[in-house]
UniProtKB/TrEMBL annotation:
Positions in coiled-coil regions: none
Organism, as annotated: Paenibacillus spiritus
Protein name (record): Uncharacterized protein
Superkingdom as given in the UniProt entry: Bacteria
Pfam short name (any one): NTF-like
Amino acid sequence: MEGTMELSNLTWLSGEAFDENALGAALLRRQGSSSSQSALLHDFDMVILVLHEELEEGYQIQDSLTGEIRSQILHVDLDSLQRSVITGDNNERISCILEGDIIWDPQGVLEQIRQEIIRFSKPLRDRILFVEFARLLHMYVKSKRYIQAGCIMDAYNCILVALYHWARLEVTEQGRYPEPAVWEQVKELNSSVYKMYEELTVSGETLEQRIQLAQLACEFSMMSQMGQSCSFLLNWMKERGETWSVQELLKHSDFQPVALELPLVLRKLASRALVQEVASWKEGGGCAVQYAVC
């Protein structure tokens, strides 16, 4: 942190009153045309992230105009911010942590989160790998279904998103935290996913052919990396030595970011004999499926 700003000064700067019980605050100013800055800063002079222990909705957003300074204040609770660090779903929050000035941090919480991202140790890497693999798989399957139905543009949109998750996965595999401008990171790596992105967007082949080529590349990448990318889930299940239903797994906060994708991931892991499907009869008839590591 380069200097500390009192909350009274921050209140004057933004025109908003701040709770002194807040865990911390970070300020991101607009600085030229930095490619890594959030697109949100195109309309605001600064974004202020205020961290709380808990918020009823997990987050609140306020816009402020003080003189000629236009600001946006993001009130975020700790769970929501930690989830954003893993999923990358909110570029503004990540940009504030990585590029902004930490202006209020009495307990060192924001600095600790920043250092966790900078160090990018294995626990965080494994969690991000799993999330990105799950989302890559989900969008790949959607693209396949759309192209089978003849919905070419929808298939294109889904495979483009799949490549984005592949890009984040590949950056993570290289030991780097996937930043908001992830394609700039991938370009520096001269990686296969960047070449596939160019093939998909500028190749002379028909759109359908380009989509199918990208689908094949995604499938090959996923099949070859499934065990490694899903090690967070597999190790978690193995340590507990039980069978788990999808619903039981989703009760754990670690898996809630992939609530939509988890059933599909488990089926794919079962098809590759990385997990075992265990059937049990339910009261009143029918069969319930649970999963255990092979």
